[in-house]
Automatic annotation (TrEMBL):
Name of this chain's protein: Diaminopropionate ammonia-lyase family
Domain Tryptophan synthase beta chain-like PALP: start-end pairs: 315-617
Stored PANTHER family: DIAMINOPROPIONATE AMMONIA-LYASE, PTHR42937
Organism: Saccharopolyspora phatthalungensis
Domain (DUF1989) ranges: 41-215
Coiled-coil spans in chain: none
Cleaved signal peptide residues: none
Length: 652
């Protein structure tokens, strides 16, 4: 082989290489620092899929001697993000081993896993130039088999993986180029791909660390150890050299993971020269922003809809109403106005129950290795765990309600601005309430320090090293949009969707929903209080930017100083415009909704407040033209909360 320099070499400031000290510590963890949570055998000529939670280690083992395995990997919550074999070849090498990383597809481009152990690390190049753990080739499949032999065979690796992932809602179209574990390959003198007998022996293994929640699928190749050719003049039946492979999954001691944070999505802004966030037009007083050209939503990852079936099994589930508000449509000069009214959701006066219930059950299920079904979880978790949240009200109330369902303890941190009625409602769920002297962001900072083996933080905003639960909260909101699609009149979609923004979780879910709708994508307007407009400030700056305290708006649930880090990439790609509204406009919106029979307070009415300002403020003509607002525009707003008894305003 030549020594010509590699093409893909990181620059001095690139965050690229694995931290070898960290991954050496993970790979060398002692038995008391890792707890086995799953173990199974994949029989010869078959396949199986399984999950590996972020921060866990998975080991693939040659349990009976040499056997090749074809591995596929996806982000468990977004199958569009999956292993990218060709880019990994370029960034790492064509045959991977310890400290190499498997990278994901565009537009995500981050490590899905890092190899932490390889008993064949020292193998190769052999006398033929062969090396193991191959990214050069791909899986065997029945189509190429028919091409080369004229015969059908249904148990190639492509077919085995296809069958394995069907229970996860994936299909043949999701199966992709593989990592050929234990396979020995190379290029011959004619620059053609060769495969030879695997050098693996009984007990050999490849071990990797999951950087994000993974769905993995492995086929035990029908070629076995590849010592018998599959095609050509010497081809024969290799069934005698086919063997099983073993899988083990381990949860790691948190101390071993000290210094590890889940990798962020690629920081490229996903504009592709179409428009830059910083080029948006904005009013001189900084109260609005609009993109020069409509957002395409092309870089927005989809919602995971698994929560919808979960919610349908919960006691008291029923869709919330989508109300047609013709009087308000006339008042604001638009063609039609629909309001998704979340005044009662699973016994709570807020949509927040959708995200909180799903996130609580998923987090506990991952911790104990169970299904997220409350009935299955309850006997496994009752009395063993504590759930923690920081809140201005409704998210924490929803976490407390879910904790009561499951029989686990709960502790909720509230900023000092939250009233006694809201705190009392949370206490009635059996939760301990801690009042923090400071803002919502101060409460979040304190709650973030509380996680341990028996205490789980359930937050709807993220911070470095804490992303999965907030992502699950966002996915929980998918139920709301499935309901909207079923409730809209046949063939009709909104032209404009208006959503209120706190940390951006709901707006992120809306943007992901809109990105998958057929036809022309509806425009998306974000609305925030004037003194807590963190998304608006960020869009104007082109980067996440704090809205400094104090945050005194009567739209209490939106009094947030920072956009969630996991929301920002979706919002910068998917928001068309942002608008700040004051409390006087918020109060007018409450009154307008009340006149149409919808009871809420300023947080729930913020989307109507945005519509009010958008259609009445003479200085917003440019914004109206960019959003194409006219007398024919069909508008969808989210009324996110009802008005709880004893409270004179709805809070977050």
């Amino acid at each position: 082989m030549g020594s010509y320099p590699a093409a893909y070499q990181p620059g001095a400031n690139a965050a690229f290489a694995a931290d070898r000290d960290l991954y050496r510590r993970i790979g060398n963890a002692s038995p008391d620092q890792r707890t086995q949570v799953e173990s199974f055998i994949i029989p010869p000529r078959s396949g199986r899929a399984w999950e590996v939670p972020a921060g866990s280690v998975c080991r693939i083992i040659a349990v009976d001697g040499p056997q090749v395995g074809d591995l596929n990997v996806w982000n468990r919550h977004n199958p569009r993000e999956r292993m990218w074999a060709s880019r990994t070849r370029q960034l790492q090498r064509a045959h991977v081993s310890t400290y190499d990383r498997i990278w994901s597809t565009l537009p995500y481009l981050r490590p899905l896993l890092t190899i932490t152990g390889d008993s064949l690390e020292g193998y190769g190049p052999d006398e033929h130039g062969g090396r193991v753990h191959d990214l050069l080739g791909t899986r065997c499949d029945p189509y190429v088999n028919r091409l080369l032999t004229g015969e059908d065979f249904d148990f190639h690796c492509h077919s085995n993986i296809t069958r394995a992932v069907l229970p996860y809602g994936l299909t043949e179209l999701d199966v992709h180029d593989v990592l050929n574990v234990f396979q020995c390959t190379g290029l011959n003198d004619e620059d053609r791909y060769f495969m030879k007998a695997s050098p693996a022996q009984r007990g050999d293994f490849l071990e990797f660390f999951a950087e994000v929640d993974l769905l993995c699928a492995l086929s035990t190749c029908p070629g076995g150890d590849l010592s018998i050719p599959l095609w050509g003049p010497d081809a024969a039946d290799p069934s005698e050299v086919c063997r099983p492979l073993g899988i083990e999954v381990y949860r790691m001691d948190p101390a071993v993971l000290d210094g590890w944070t889940p990798p962020e999505l690629a920081p490229y802004r996903n504009m592709h020269g179409l428009a830059l966030p910083s080029s948006g037009q904005s009013q001189g007083d900084g109260s609005w922003w609009v993109r020069d050209s409509p957002a395409t939503g092309a870089a927005v990852e989809p919602l995971d809809t698994a929560a919808t079936e979960f919610h349908r099994t919960l006691p008291g589930y029923r869709p919330t109403p989508l109300q047609d508000l013709p009087e308000l449509a006339e008042k604001y000069g638009v063609g039609r106005l629909w309001a998704k009214v979340e005044s009662e959701r699973l016994g709570m006066p807020s949509f927040k129950m959708l995200g909180a219930s799903w996130a609580c059950c998923r987090a506990l299920a991952d911790r104990v290795g169970a299904s997220p079904s409350p009935d299955e979880l309850r006997p496994r978790v009752t009395g063993r765990f504590t759930l923690i949240a920081a809140t201005d009200g409704n998210h924490g109330h929803a976490v407390a309600r879910t904790a009561r369902w499951l029989g686990v303890a709960c502790r909720i941190y509230l900023p000092e601005s939250v009233g006694a009625a809201r705190a009392g409602a949370i206490k009635e769920e059996g939760a301990d309430v801690i009042v923090v002297q400071g803002s919502y962001d101060d409460a979040i900072a304190l709650a973030a320090t509380q996680e341990n083996d028996s205490t789980l933080v359930i937050s709807d905003t993220a911070w470095p090293g804490y992303e999965q639960v907030p992502r699950t909260v966002i996915d929980g909101y998918a139920t709301l949009f499935g309901e909207i699609e079923a409730q809209l009149p046949d063939g009709e979609l909104p032209d404009l969707v208006i959503v209120q923004v706190g940390v951006g979780a709901l707006a992120t879910a809306v943007a992901r929903w809109l990105s998958r709708l057929p036809g022309r994508r509806p425009r998306l307007l974000a609305v925030e209080p004037t003194d807590a407009a963190c998304l608006l400030r960020s869009l104007r700056a082109g980067a996440p930017t704090e809205a400094p305290p104090p945050h005194r708006s009567g739209m209490d649930g939106l009094n947030c100083g920072n956009v969630s880090p996991i929301a920002w990439p979706t919002l910068v790609a998917g928001i068309d415009a942002a608008l700040a509204v004051d409390d006087a406009t918020g109060a007018a919106a409450v009154a307008a909704l009340h006149s149409s029979g919808v009871s809420t307070a300023m947080t729930g009415a913020a989307s109507i407040a945005g519509l009010d300002r958008l259609t009445s403020d003479e200085s917003l003509d440019l914004l109206r033209r960019h959003l194409d607002v006219s007398a024919n525009t069909r508008v969808l707003v989210l009324v996110t909360e009802g008005l709880p008894q004893g409270c004179d305003k709805v809070v977050r």
